[in-house]
Design a protein that fits this description.
Layout (H helix, E strand, L loop, with lengths): L7 E5 L6 H10 L5 E2 L3 E2 L14 E2 L2 H9 L3 E7 L2 E6 H9 L4 E4 L2 H10 L4 E6 L3 H11 L4 H16 L6 E4 L3 H19 L1 H14 L1
Parallel strand pairs: 1-7, 1-8, 2-7, 3-4, 8-9
Antiparallel strand pairs: 3-6, 5-6
Helix pairs in contact: 1-7
This protein binds adenosine-5'-triphosphate and ligand LQESDW3C.
Length: 206
């Protein structure tokens, strides 16, 4: 029997909207999704661990990964590189397991070109004021970096029409439930078993 490939889910949205928070809450639940840990040249924040939060790389190391074609997408964001490792994503999908990416919008658009069968989810804040409060209150960025992220947010929000689903992150639990519904609904849509039933029913009807 041919094994069904896994589904690639991509969660994106402006900085500070809560992508990381929603993703972590989702993975605290019982989920069959596999999270792809990104590579970055950004310095680790307090408490972040190499190989858990990110694979932390120097710029030289990252540029080597780019030139060797080891990333399915990458973007320069707020003066640092971020990218998704190709081998892990491809191998995991081949094994029939779903992969979950949490990335910014330029990277998501690149993934869409290479994986048009992926499922693209955009997280939006209830308001720009709330977005600003979230980035400021997180307390991880300097004033200058907050300004750069908020400026980028306006262009990022403009891109939401390129996504399959848009979810407002006004409440983490609600947003997580909606992401879970997307995962479930995509499985129902693509299920080979459902297709076999449909074929059998169609044959019965003729
Ligand atoms: N629904 C929510 N209501 C209130 N605060 C939230 C909500 N979701 C996330 N937050 C808070 O907003 C801040 C930003 O969240 P988070 O770091 O998850 O955003 P992000 O989109 O991953 O940001 P970045 O792209 O910069 O990594 C955090 O302090 C988080 O606790
Ligand atoms: N294009 C990619 N963007 C990524 C990836 N991993 C994370 N990100 C996004 O970068 C920004 C900044 O992240 P932060 O941890 O410095 O706050 C945020 O929007 C992330 O979602 C990736 O592999 N590719």
């Amino acid at each position: 029997m041919i094994k069904e490939k896994g589904i690639l889910f991509v969660l994106s949205g402006p900085s500070g909207v809560g992508k990381g928070t929603v993703r972590k809450a989702l993975f605290e639940q019982d989920t069959d999704l596999r999270y792809s840990i990104s590579m970055t040249t950004r310095a680790p924040r307090e408490g972040e661990k190499d190989g858990v939060d990110y694979f932390f790389k120097t710029r030289n190391e990252f540029e080597k990964l780019i030139s060797e074609g080891e990333l399915i997408e990458y973007a320069e964001y707020a003066n640092n590189y971020y990218g998704t490792p190709k081998a892990y994503v491809q191998q995991t999908l081949e094994e029939g397991k779903d992969v979950f990416l949490e990335i910014e919008v330029n990277g998501a658009l690149q993934v869409r070109e290479n994986f048009p069968e992926g499922v693209f989810v955009f997280l939006i804040p209830p308001s720009l004021e709330e977005l600003k409060d979230r980035i400021v209150n997180r307390g991880t960025e300097t004033e200058e970096k907050i300004k750069a992220r908020l400026e980028a947010a306006r262009d990022e929000i403009d891109m939401m029409d390129n996504y399959d689903y848009v979810i407002v992150n006004d409440n983490v639990d609600h947003a997580v439930s909606k992401v879970q519904s997307v995962v479930l609904s995509e499985h129902c849509k693509r299920s080979r078993v459902a297709k076999q039933y449909k074929q059998a029913l169609e044959e019965d009807l003729t």
